Amino acid sequence: MIVVDVSIVAVAVPAMVRGLDAGLTSVVWVTSAYLLAYAVPMLFTSRLGDRHGPRRVFLAGLVVFTGASLGSALSGDIGTLIAARAVQGFGAALLTPQTLSLITHLYPGGERGRAMGVLGGVSGLATVTGPLLGGVLVDGLGWQGIFYVNVLVGAATLALSLRVIPDVRPDPTHRFDIPGILLSGTGLFLIVFGIQNGRTHDWGRLIGPVTVFQTIAAGLLLLAVFVVSQGRARAEPLVPLDLFKDRGFRSGTLVTAVLGFAMTGMFLPLVVHLQSALGLTPTQAGLLTAPMALVPAVMAPFTGRLSDRVSAKYLLIAGLSGMASGLVLVALRTGPGTPPWQLLPGLLLTGLGMGLVLVPVNNVAMRTVRAELRGAASGVFFTGRQLGSVLGSAAVGVLLQARIAARVADAANTAAQRLPARYRADFATSLRGTAETSQAGGGRIRLPDSLPARLLPQAQDLAARAVQAGLARAAADTLVLVIAVLLLGVPATVGVPVPGRRPVLVDPDTA
After folding, report:
1. What confidence tier does 277 reach under pLDDT thresholds 50, 70, 90?
2. Residue 20 DSSP code
3. What does the angle CA 407 – CA 409 – CA 410 come to, to the nearest 5 degrees?
4. Cβ distance 253 to 379 under 8 Å?
5. PROSITE patterns under this entry (predicted)?
6. Nearest-angstrom CA–CA distance, 111 and 509
């Protein structure tokens, strides 16, 4: 449900822009608010599982997530939808850490990779289902359909969970680090809020005299204070810093943050290119991207078992490099008028790379974590991925808007040269003014009133071509950021043990 809800919304972005009469900046917050409310409380919600039991917290999260899905579907304006998505994100934050915690409790070390493989396979299938199911639902029921389906799935999942999830008994002695919760949550919120709203406020004043950069700096300062406080905490810290002495956990958390950035960040430019520049329907766009996600779903059980037997270091390196290489191929073929099928080789290579990372990174991070730290480790691990996803959504959204403005302006100036000289400036200015709505397929291109009727057909054709070219080139430009982050993530694998140098471990549960 959670993985589907990230990718499925990306497919519905153009329909939301049209249906809610909103700009792309506002609609990007539909994803960012969800991811922000997902990432910020996860350190705290992971410890809730330690205190009250993962099953109980899982069920509570499922109820919140399902109810907020209904609220999202019934939203009549963009503000209400963003608020409902934030509540939905909190439900996801309650759910997610409990999955790894339950798996590590229930499966000994030698079988854990297989269990992680099943989890990875389900996640891969969810990634397939998101774009494809989203396209079908948007075409048939409108954007609200993507949230109504959660209500049905959520109700069925709740009934099954009550029957089959075991009640792992909690440790009632666990305490909550309230100052740590406030410091980490506020710091993360300020950083992402500043990044998300930077371009909208021209990187100047954000609220009153407070600037965007001051907001981001304040967030970084609070996170620094949080880290210092965790090292000095006399009671139980929210994030035991001893976790980061484990090389596998440290490397796995860094890699999963990079993976979260890439998997979230690549969808928005792809959707804008496929639906707005190439004119595909949501269903067609979902079908085109489905093979990219099907590959890791098929690979997951095999890479899970393999990560139990050999070092995952080379799997992670090959996976991150494969994803970057695949997106390079996609970016090279992302141009106006390029047949959609020419994107398939790059998309398949991207999916192959994902398949080599998705499951092994889970096993790498959790394999050697001590039993008493598993709840905290699960929270930190998933917080790393969701923080990467939040930053990916915000940074890619900001960059995409900036590149659309620049590319549409360039294309408009070029197209204007085919009109009589006295109409060129008004034509180019009009196209630049409609970039915000046209960039997501949400608005009709407006032409200047000064154009005579005899030039309107030619001008409309020139405008449509200019906007499509600008969107396609902007999408390719934006993918470069995702590629760079993937390549920068390769050094994060340096701490993963390699064959011949792994320590002999005794699983605490079976010793």
Report:
1. confident
2. T
3. 65
4. no
5. MFS (PS50850)
6. 12
pLDDT in tens, 472-506: 888 899 999 999 999 999 988 877 766 554 444 43
Q: Rounded to an integer, what distance in angstroms lies between the CA atom of residue 121 and that of residue 41?
A: 26
Q: Which amino acid is at 427?
A: F
CA distance 39 to 379: 9
Q: What 3-state class would DSSP assign to 211?
A: strand
pLDDT-derived band at 64, boundaries 50, 70, 90 = very high
List C-alpha distances in Å: 140 to 281, 283, 441: 11, 10, 18
| CA 2 centroid distance within chain | 10
pLDDT tens readout for residues 282-300: 778 778 887 887 787 778 7
AA letter at 11: V
**Average of per-residue pLDDT across 80-90:** 92
pLDDT tens figures, 432-448: 666 555 444 444 566 77
Cα(490)–Cα(325) distance, integer angstroms: 13
Nearest-CA neighbor of 301 among 46, 53, 117, 65?
A: 117
Classify residue 169 by its DSSP letter: P
If DSSP states are collapsed to H, E and C, what string results for 398-448?
HHHHHHHHHHHHHHHHHHHCCCCHHHHHHHHHHHHHCHHHHCCCCCCCCCC
Gap between the Cα atoms of 391 and 236, Å rounded:
29
> Cα 437 to chain center, whole Å?
23
Q: Judge whether residue 256 has pLDDT over 60.
A: yes
Is residue 274 within 8 A of residue 504, CB to CB? The reply is: no
The whole-number average pLDDT for the span 71-95 is: 90
CA contacts within 13 A on the Cβ side of 179 = 13
Rounded distance, CA 425 to CA 421, Å? 8
- Extract the tokens encoding 301: 């059980």
* Largest CA-CA distance found in the chain, in angstroms, rounded: 85
**Higher-pLDDT residue of 246, 253:** 253
Cα separation, 32 vs 78, whole angstroms: 13
Architecture of domain 2-165+238-405+470-495 in CATH?
Up-down Bundle (1.20)
Joined tokens for residue 488: 């920068």
Residue 440: per-residue pLDDT: 46
Q: Which residues pair with 207 in a beta bridge?
A: 210
Dist. CA 430–CA 441, nearest whole Å: 16
In this prediction, residues 19-45 reach a mean pLDDT of 77
Residue 438 burial (C-beta neighbours within 10 Å; 0-12, 13-18, 19+):
buried
Which of 28, 38, 40 has its CA nearest to residue 190?
Answer: 40
Q: What are phi and psi of 174, to 5 degrees?
A: -65, 140
Domain boundaries defined on the chain: 2-165+238-405+470-495, 177-237
Q: DSSP readout, 195-208?
A: HHHTTTTTTSEEET
Look up tokens 């995952």; give the residue. 312
